[in-house]
Write a structure and sequence with these properties.
About 25% of the residues lie in helices and about 30% in strands. The protein is of the alpha+beta class.
Length: about 120
């Protein structure tokens, strides 16, 4: 039986160059993270995840929904300053990950959940 290790840390530590070896992580799970990252930080995260992830990225986050008054109110209360649309998140992910599944659902906020496989980069 294969052993399982969970690694967690701050985004600043994880983005430190060569913190983890290439393809040393089977699966990365990013929940409610992207809306806390600036437009400069987000592509750095995805680039580094594509480097270290061997098999799969699971990402879930609330997304901006300008048609929902409740969602707009909730974003005003959230500490994350960078809510993005589904299209903007996909555009940031797709250079680094082949998106295998993308789902959207609503529970007060609108959410995006996706599974992605790192793209082979040469």
């Amino acid at each position: 039986m294969q052993s399982t290790r969970f690694i967690s840390g701050s985004i600043d530590h994880t983005l430190h160059p060569r913190c983890l070896r290439a393809k040393s992580v089977d699966c990365a799970l990013c929940i409610a993270l992207s809306h806390h990252l600036s437009d400069g930080q987000l592509p750095l995260l995805f680039r580094e995840l594509a480097r270290v992830v061997r098999d799969r990225l699971v990402l879930m986050d609330a997304v901006r929904d300008s048609n929902s008054k409740l969602s707009q109110l909730l974003w005003k209360c959230d500490r994350g300053k960078y809510p993005r649309s589904v299209e903007a998140l996909r555009a940031a992910l797709e250079p680094w990950f082949e998106l295998q599944q993308v789902r959207e659902f609503t529970v007060f906020h609108r959410y995006m959940m996706c599974l992605g496989k790192p793209r082979i980069r040469t």
